[in-house]
Amino acid sequence: MNNAEKVSVTMAREQMQAIRERVEAGEFATVSEAMRDAVRVWQRQRIEDAERLEAIRARVRRSIEDSRPSLSEDEADAALEAAIAGIDKDLDRAAS
Q1: Is residue 55 part of a domain?
Q2: How far apart are CA 25 and CA 74, in angstroms?
Q3: From CA 55, how far away is CA 26, in angstroms rounded?
Q4: 49/95 same-domain check
């Protein structure tokens, strides 16, 4: 680890205990290795969160730009009820 940088971090006692337990259980060789893994997981989660947020934004943009007419509340309710009824039928058929 040529690019390693030593840092000092204050953590809750319970968090440190959880890390030590994982090291003692052999999941990690050292506390440092466990901390590096935790940072990798955190980085990956942030990337995944950003990707999910962008996907939601894209869906909202497509919805706003959709030229098809909007459904009224009654039409939306009827469509949802029909979809749920279809799912219920499929589940009943699968259970038989």
Answers
A1: yes
A2: 58
A3: 38
A4: no
